[in-house]
Design a protein that fits this description.
4 copies of one chain form a homotetramer.
Chain A (H helix, E strand, L loop, with lengths): L1 E8 L11 H5 L4 E5 L7 H14 L2 E5 L17 H22 L3 E4 L3 H9 L1 H15 L4 E3 L4 H8 L4 E6 L23 H14 L1 E3 L5 E3 L4 E3 L7 H14 L3 E2 L4
Parallel strand pairs in A: 1-2, 1-9, 1-10, 2-3, 3-4, 5-6, 6-9
Antiparallel strand pairs in A: 7-8
Helix pairs in contact in A: 2-3, 3-5, 4-5, 5-6, 7-8
Subunit structure (chains A, B, C, D): Forms a complex composed of PxpA, PxpB and PxpC.
Family (chains A, B, C, D): Belongs to the LamB/PxpA family.
Catalytic activity (chains A, B, C, D): 5-oxo-L-proline + ATP + 2 H2O = L-glutamate + ADP + phosphate + H(+)
Amino acid sequence: MQVDLNSDLGEGFGAYAITDDAALLDIVSSANLACGLHAGDPEIMARVFALAKAKGVSVGAHPGFPDLWGFGRRRIPFTTGEIERLVAYQVGAAQGMAAYAGHRVSYVKAHGALSNMAEESAEVAAAIARAVKAVDARLPILAGPLGAQAQATRAAGLTPIAEIFADRAYTEAGLLVPRGQPGAVITDPDEAAARVVAMVKAGAIITASGTPLPTEIGSICVHGDSAHAVETARRVRARLEDEGISIVPFA
Amino acid sequence: MQVDLNSDLGEGFGAYAITDDAALLDIVSSANLACGLHAGDPEIMARVFALAKAKGVSVGAHPGFPDLWGFGRRRIPFTTGEIERLVAYQVGAAQGMAAYAGHRVSYVKAHGALSNMAEESAEVAAAIARAVKAVDARLPILAGPLGAQAQATRAAGLTPIAEIFADRAYTEAGLLVPRGQPGAVITDPDEAAARVVAMVKAGAIITASGTPLPTEIGSICVHGDSAHAVETARRVRARLEDEGISIVPFA
Amino acid sequence: MQVDLNSDLGEGFGAYAITDDAALLDIVSSANLACGLHAGDPEIMARVFALAKAKGVSVGAHPGFPDLWGFGRRRIPFTTGEIERLVAYQVGAAQGMAAYAGHRVSYVKAHGALSNMAEESAEVAAAIARAVKAVDARLPILAGPLGAQAQATRAAGLTPIAEIFADRAYTEAGLLVPRGQPGAVITDPDEAAARVVAMVKAGAIITASGTPLPTEIGSICVHGDSAHAVETARRVRARLEDEGISIVPFA
Amino acid sequence: MQVDLNSDLGEGFGAYAITDDAALLDIVSSANLACGLHAGDPEIMARVFALAKAKGVSVGAHPGFPDLWGFGRRRIPFTTGEIERLVAYQVGAAQGMAAYAGHRVSYVKAHGALSNMAEESAEVAAAIARAVKAVDARLPILAGPLGAQAQATRAAGLTPIAEIFADRAYTEAGLLVPRGQPGAVITDPDEAAARVVAMVKAGAIITASGTPLPTEIGSICVHGDSAHAVETARRVRARLEDEGISIVPFA
């Protein structure tokens, strides 16, 4: 049995850093790499691609809104056409940096507000899918198994990879409990690790009430930008391996 | 007999415009497209790629320094490593937008201060060549026939395309007379057109004193951002065609 | 009888220009000056302040969202606290540039999406008023006479100046007919001028159906960024002066 | 006996942080506050001003080049006129945020490459002084006692405040040993603290060879962005107080 472990990396900019890229690249099998618009720059992109290559980690383009100040977390009212072009630009830029660093872009995962909007809106999700399809139709897209993006990705003829979050609670509909609600975020690394193991073994999202919602699970996201990111990622990996589940890139 | 006619296009940003892209795309055979760092954004890039495709115009990536305020004309002291990565990023982004718009990137031409530095410095020119080679080694690079960049490009195993400027005077060494010196810039469209015809027919750069310096001429640059840009480009093309010289993309 | 004529100026950025600042400064009595976040930079700000000073034109800070790409026209979901601080920053920057150029900031007018939001939302309008009050409580704020901003400005103890638009139709409620609806924008310079004269003489907004809604009119806005901006502004001024109405800054 | 202790603060941007502002504001008497061009944004500026006010810490505007990616450390070839306007803009913006937060701007200190250039070039230093004089001629300027900036500041009729660095070695001419040379940076907090005490008590810069160069010392800079910044600042302050030297803002 195997599963992928992904994390957002390379989210610095110039002198700024947020994620401990070197430490996380020793733990995850897939790295979602910021492409320079909400975070990231050619320097950090080249470093992460090169390090990921050396460690056998797959890299995905992680496009976001052009909002460095807001770290891509503000829902800026772009049209779906603008979103298509923002995504195409960033995937292309990531491919250029990958080629430069001797690695490749293996998938796409939307960042922050763009991701949240794609999980809710079939139109936004379809715009992302059109952009990916135009630039490289072989790239799969990481998305929640029960949201709008997985559906739109499949409808566009692309491959969605079902992703669950290690540190987030799920509603009875299988969506993320919104941040800010009690229990939405799981801060205890051991609890997060235990939940992941339970969900992977059950082949299901386990909701806040304990109900299993059967789904494929292609990848587990561990956040890279929280205080205990590295520790949580390490525990999740260790617990999965203890259960005989290998950590292997999905692409 | 044939030659290419190139111009910098797509140099707007959001609500801002500088170049009359639609008019110039009816005249030139190659369009140097700003990649979003000194000018350009995904919207204008998509529009220019699509229009160029429709009109049979080749498009080159036109990378510059990340200096929108300075329009890429400030010599920012980047290291050669940073320059490599800046160029790789922009060529990749242009390829992404080309794929999105159903067209392709056919060559690379450095912009503004980056270009000036590459014409003078073998190290800067080599950095650009390394970046292009890593991203797509088939792409030729537009460069002055007698400057450092053509040499470095060839040394890197890439193809330089010799470019002359329609509206600039040349020193006896075959380099551009620096802007600001008397006679450096040719503002009369007819004079510019006549000079181009003379140089193409002679197969030589003609210096300020009238001396011909024999060289290949692969492409003629007409500037897109001056007041009489469209008119000059039109005259240059008309005069060349009058002489039986076809305007054909080099790549 | 007298009235103020205002226009948005200084909306360039680096090599980019949109407004014909020199021509408009010969026509208007008040110039709304972009402060560097949605448009404008220290160079153009210094030039406009100096030229306005020389021509006896008052200058207002014209703060907008930090969205150069969107020219401040995207409704970015900033909190009211963030809006307060964005406005305080920009008014301060404008005051610094005014002092540098030997002029002063005489009022504040919100730009684009920020202005639209302030006309609709008492909370946004109050945030702007708090910022202006903190930085310089003597500064009046230009606002539509019948929208949320005039009310919130007054409630904050600041002075709203009632502004009407020369080139826009009004609903029966005295609000702008949204762009995109038929007749929303008046493109004929003579028609715009005639409407302005009629409204100023009537002391009323005249709605699309011809109903006069009595209101103070402190200033008339002529847009600076349209194709016929200078011509429209000139006609509006000429027609007002023909009627014996002087063009005088309100502050 | 008393001296001022200053540190660069507020050097974050959006989600990014570099300096531990809250901790440093408990130690220093003056905070140099980034103004949004090389670092900083209205949010962090408002927070630092408010916290500094609450803790009785003076705040200086800390203008730098508009180069967020380079953190203001790249020597961008701006003209002296552009530098004047960049500084005026940033000092004004800082004053706006100070007014908003109920505090005030008490002095100016140039950042990074701008500071380095001002210490070497009388023209750059004079440009900064002209800007400060225009915006608020009462503001003193922090500068090295033996460099070009102190002289140019005095020549402009403004007050230079002599600043020494706690963690940097000095040449026999009293200038900073360039980073990269052996011994240029003092990383041991105790050594830094001991040096500061020796220099303040001697009223002299002590060069690498141990020679005292007598000078006024108005302020001591402790860097805020190094790994041991807070610890070094704390030791410097403690050692000075142990010697009966009070830490008091100079302005």
